[in-house]
């Protein structure tokens, strides 16, 4: 009797319908200049600029590639109750094995835009509250800087959110700059002795003229050595302290304000016979209270720390001529190879979709110029 009961129970178990996991899903091909693609790319650029640690804001220049993958959450619904199978066998419940079933279709959870985009550095520092739309793009003759980025952007319920970001940035080649403008200065290493000296002299001069707070150096953002007349051009970020500029005797005892107040300075130190002249202008921004940032939700969300205090010392920039593109990274202050390592859970790709011949092939249009 027990053998018969076991056989019947196993027969009921085998009758449970199931759908194999890992159903292949294919990507959708979009035009690189499609409005939906551009929306995803602009969300990616906003993510870059809102999570920079230093340097300058970047703007979208070109969309190189795009694929749109369906994102699904495959749920295994485990049914432990074998009541139907046990009917008639109440005296032998231990002989019934649990029955499992799966949903007939994956539950849709939005789409993931897999993007490759190019960005260009603007003249607005990351601490500058000026909207990106009002920031000028750094021109080629100024030794432009380009960002090369890979993104995975989730679109769900009409909203875009970044799941994965990887950006490298690099200045244009010296040859390209010289070809356009033979006499234009090139970017200089930020630890060059002339650069360090120019920043120190310029900041000292600014504090000497100030009737308000004493400002402390946060970072050197950009530098160029000008051959004629011999001079050093620098751009650097500063922060206000709790000391009055006129009363400072020991800058080491000055602390940053609780409500951070930042500034951005441009200066030129010109060498002269028997001395040097410095011209410096600084723009001081509104105070910026530290506010808690909402964290993304969902199983694939990237947890992002609030933007690091730019006053915290950062790794050396000795071999890097420009600090430009930084995306949530503690390992590099140069912006040369920064990553948000966590990516989305995407169903294993199936057979690729053949692109529609009516679509303009990627890459898309260049919005400014090619570096």
Describe the structure.
One of its GO terms (molecular function) is cysteine-type endopeptidase inhibitor activity. This protein has 371 residues and is α+β, with helices and mostly antiparallel strands. It has two domains: 197 residues, Nuclear Transport Factor 2, Chain: A (Roll), CATH 3.10.450; 97 residues, Nuclear Transport Factor 2, Chain: A (Roll). The chain has a five-stranded antiparallel beta sheet. Strand 9 and strand 10 form a beta hairpin. The termini are far apart. The N terminus is likely disordered.
Key terms:
alpha+beta; Nuclear Transport Factor 2, Chain: A; glycoprotein; flat; 4-stranded antiparallel β-sheet; 5-stranded antiparallel β-sheet; 5 helices; single chain
Overview in brief:
By secondary structure, this protein is α+β, with helices and mostly antiparallel strands. It folds into two domains: 2-178 and 321-340, Roll (Nuclear Transport Factor 2, Chain: A); 188-284, Nuclear Transport Factor 2, Chain: A, CATH 3.10.450.10. It has helices at 2-14, 35-50, 83-86, 174-180, 193-209, and strands spanning 56-73, 77-79, 99-101, 107-125, 145-156, 159-171, 213-226, 231-244, 262-272, 275-284, 338-340.
What is the strand and helix layout of this fold?
Elements: H1 2-14, H2 35-50, E1 56-73, E2 77-79, H3 83-86, E3 99-101, E4 107-125, E5 145-156, E6 159-171, H4 174-180, H5 193-209, E7 213-226, E8 231-244, E9 262-272, E10 275-284, E11 338-340
Antiparallel strand pairs: 1-4, 2-3, 4-5, 5-6, 6-11, 7-8, 8-9, 9-10
């Amino acid at each position: 009797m027990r053998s018969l009961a076991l056989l019947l129970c196993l027969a009921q178990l085998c009758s449970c319908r199931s759908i194999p996991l890992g159903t292949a899903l294919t990507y959708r091909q979009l035009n690189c200049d499609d409005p939906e693609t551009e929306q995803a790319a602009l969300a990616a650029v906003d993510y870059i600029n809102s999570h920079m640690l230093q340097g300058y804001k970047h703007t979208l220049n070109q969309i190189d590639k795009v694929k749109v993958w369906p994102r699904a959450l495959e749920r295994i619904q485990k049914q432990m109750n074998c009541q139907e199978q046990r009917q008639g066998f109440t005296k032998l419940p231990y002989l019934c094995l649990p029955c499992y079933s799966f949903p007939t279709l994956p539950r849709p959870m939005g789409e993931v835009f897999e993007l490759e985009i190019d960005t260009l550095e603007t003249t607005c520092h990351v601490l500058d509250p000026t909207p990106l739309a009002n920031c000028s793009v750094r021109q080629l003759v100024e030794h432009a800087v380009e960002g090369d980025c890979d993104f995975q952007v989730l679109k769900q319920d009409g909203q875009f959110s970044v799941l994965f970001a990887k950006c490298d940035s690099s200045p244009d080649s010296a040859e390209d700059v010289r070809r356009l403008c033979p006499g234009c200065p090139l970017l200089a290493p930020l630890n060059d002795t002339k650069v360090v000296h120019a920043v120190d002299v310029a900041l000292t001069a600014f504090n000497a003229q100030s009737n308000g707070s004493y400002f402390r150096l946060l970072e050197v953002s950009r530098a160029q050595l000008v051959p004629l007349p011999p001079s050093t051009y620098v751009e650097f970020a500063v922060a206000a302290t709790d000391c009055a500029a006129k009363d400072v005797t020991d800058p080491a005892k000055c602390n940053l304000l609780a409500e951070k107040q930042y500034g951005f300075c441009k200066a030129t130190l010109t060498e002269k016979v028997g001395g040097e002249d410095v011209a410096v202008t600084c723009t001081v921004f509104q105070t910026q209270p530290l506010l808690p940032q909402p964290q993304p939700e969902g199983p694939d969300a990237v947890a992002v720390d609030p933007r690091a205090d730019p006053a915290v010392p950062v790794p050396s920039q000795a071999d890097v001529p420009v600090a430009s593109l930084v995306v949530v990274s503690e390992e590099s202050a140069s912006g040369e190879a920064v990553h948000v390592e966590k990516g989305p859970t995407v169903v294993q790709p199936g057979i690729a979709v053949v692109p529609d011949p009516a679509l303009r092939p990627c890459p898309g249009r260049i919005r400014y110029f090619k570096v």
